[in-house]
């Protein structure tokens, strides 16, 4: 995937972060998934007064996409506009993301266009029993 | 809210359950939220090979709605087509739902039109420090 | 169960809250479970920089007790020393607690001895498909 | 850390898996944490009828250890006796584990002594904003 496409996806993640419900952390996050049909599904972090029931932007996007009938995605961008440095997806999100896309899936994340990390799901989630063993669950 | 409206919402929850990703439980669930502008946002349960990272249909709907900019909802219907009896929302969903709607919000759930429970968020989640104290977070 | 026994359990929950790891919420919680053999298992809330991976005190206690081989408990006390009013268990904890104890199990919670709520698991978690149907899972 | 020490820890993880409560997955897991004072804290996976509220063995061990006052650990072993191949910790556990121990912390996992993976927290959880930035939270 070309970098320009990833940057376009990142812009959509930034817009998605505006709908974040994060009164507890004050840390808005947005995520954008590129689907196989070319459409984009976004999500924001939705927190809860019981912190453990908060949901990250990446998982909001995945749950929205899967609930709409999608079963995989081609790329992911994550925007954390209020961070001073790129913040990668949390472990729970890495786990959920790898349920639906292969290790080579491109991922980018950052606070702004000037300071981003470009990687893949496989680099973020090594030792994945599911994909390493060729399962296609 | 009239029962006919709740039944209409229930039909949408049933349709939503068709997008369930539940290879581990084989138990599809669909949820439908009625929004203040009259639109409906749906969700399905999206499971994970690490069971603890599974997400219920009710929360899929909430995360989708909030990510789209909504901040509350007016009613909820839950469909569990493969159950033999009405299955209410789990505790995690009750917690997340009450973050965004008042105790009087109507909820219905069931496996089919013939065997349903009609209740409210407040009945499902008593002793809620948030709403009992008049917070409007 | 006599109130004096519940108050004794509450004292142990208060002590347990001192081991809380809650740098994000600054809201320590402690929980104490009375087991069938008369021993007490305690837990504290253990938070995470990814808020959604935080764990409540009640569930810390349950996971500790079950991991030690217990399969049920007889009573629960929850202490939230920094709250201004009694704060009940969150929905996720109600769900986990009801997996292991019947509806009549006594629960008390509060910030201090002077302002407590005495209730039961069943009152905290109505419409529980599991116990209403007599399952003994 | 010497391999013999890790194997000793692995034996304790195997024993811990016997207390697993896993009626839904039928997949018992045990975890053992070596603490700085030389003691070992174990945990098992504790599942729930609402799959998303299941807890892994690794997190059971962490929540037990932290609730007991520990704030870090020196090594981790994970046993999955019923697997045909080594199964690494899920993403949620990687996230929780890295809150409390540095990237170099040794981890081993496997189904039996004959087929194990030896790695570190940092290899399991790359791109960790917390530790990459030198935080010692």
Automatic annotation (TrEMBL), chains A, B, C, D:
Keywords: Hydrolase, Metal-binding, Zinc
Binding positions for Zn(2+) per the UniProt entry: 56, 90, 93
Catalytic reactions of this protein: 2'-deoxycytidine + H2O + H(+) = 2'-deoxyuridine + NH4(+); cytidine + H2O + H(+) = uridine + NH4(+)
CDD domains named among the record's database cross-references: cytidine_deaminase (cd01283)
A Pfam family of this chain: dCMP_cyt_deam_1
Key word Transferase present: no
Cellular component per GO, a single term: cytosol
GO biological process: nucleobase-containing small molecule metabolic process; pyrimidine-containing compound metabolic process
InterPro entries: APOBEC/CMP_deaminase_Zn-bd, CMP_dCMP_dom, Cyt/Deoxycyt_deaminase, Cyt_deam_tetra, Cytidine_deaminase-like
Protein name: Cytidine deaminase
Species in which this protein is naturally found: Candidatus Treponema excrementipullorum
